[in-house]
Amino acid sequence: MLRYLYGDQLSDHPLLRDTMFRDRAAQFKTRLKWQVDVDENGFERHEYDALNPLYVILENNLGRHEGSLRLLPTTGRCMINEKFRFLLGGSSLSSPLIWESTRFCLAPKAFKHSASKLMLAAGEVMLGFGVEQSVAVFDHTMRRIYRRIGATPEILAEQGSGKTYIGLGLWSFSPLQRQAVARSAKVLPEHSSHWFDLAFGVSNRVVPVP
User: Fold this and answer.
1) pLDDT tens readout for residues 155-208
2) Burial of 82 per CB tally in 10 Å (0-12, 13-18, 19+)
3) Which fold has domain 2-204?
4) What whole-number distance in Å separates Cα of residue 184 and Cα of residue 75?
5) What whole-number distance in Å separates Cα of residue 132 and Cα of residue 147?
6) Hey, how many other C-beta atoms are within 10 angstroms of the C-beta on 74?
7) Which of 34, 60, 71, 166 is the most exposed, having the fewest neighbouring CB atoms within 10 Å of its CB?
8) CA 206, CA 210: separation in Å to the nearest integer?
């Protein structure tokens, strides 16, 4: 199932929390060789995890992490405005209608449609909270994944090629895009809505689901 948990709720789900941070270490530190810190517990976490972000987490039937991403409003501290401003020519991006997505992570043996489910869930946040767009920095691997899912972003900036490629993308979530991602995820849109409503309630939706 898909869970939507703020940082201060992770302690209520210790197995899910611990396997998420360990899978992040496996992906970003071990496999991708990013310059990230891993603590004595094998967790990859940093300063933005201390800002009470909203995590979208795909949980398997054993209660363990299958995949996740992290969301923060661009009106507060976020990586695009502090670590990747060079992609914006030194300017910043700040709007209550744009949220940043970071730390897109899949467990080492994640199921085939896990990435699509995470993208669909991120879209549910946009619909439910009245967010018009999401922004993310991504590498060449994620660019291929987005294309396969049917969630290709508008490219705002890009540098390099191949393994040195880095892009900055902007996503909207129109009804047609939602249908395409839901097909890729093998999830009915009403089931996707149900997971969001379990976390936040139907009455808390800002924008009705089309």
Assistant:
1) 999 999 888 899 999 999 888 888 889 999 999 988 889 999 999 986 455 543
2) exposed
3) Aminopeptidase (3.40.630)
4) 31
5) 20
6) 22
7) 34
8) 12
